[in-house]
Write a structure and sequence with these properties.
mainly alpha; Transcription Termination Factor Rho, Rna-binding Domain, Chain A, Domain 1
Length: about 80
C-alpha cells in the first residue's frame, strides 16, 4: 500500500503539532484551552514553546490536544 493511501483518511497528516497548538490558542486562548483539556501547561505560565515541549514528551496529552483540534476543525464555518 502506498504511503499516500495510508494517510488519505488521517486528518492530521501533514499538520505539525505547532500548527495545531497555534490554531487552538488563537481560537480558545490558553485559559479556555486549559479548561477544555485539563493540562497544567496551559494554565501555569503558558507559552507555546513550553506547551510544545510538554506535548512532545507526553503522548496522552498530545492525543487529547489532537482530538480537540479535529473536533474544532469540524465545527468551523
Amino acid at each position: 500500500m502506498k504511503e499516500e493511501e495510508k494517510n488519505k483518511n488521517n486528518p492530521l497528516h501533514g499538520v505539525t503539532l505547532q500548527h495545531i497548538l497555534e490554531v487552538l490558542i488563537e481560537r480558545y486562548g490558553f485559559k479556555e484551552l486549559g479548561a477544555k483539556v485539563d493540562i497544567r501547561c496551559f494554565l501555569i505560565n503558558p507559552t507555546i514553546s513550553s506547551c510544545l515541549k510538554f506535548l512532545r514528551k507526553t503522548p496522552w496529552a498530545r492525543a487529547k490536544v489532537e482530538e480537540l483540534y479535529i473536533k474544532s476543525m469540524g465545527k468551523q464555518s
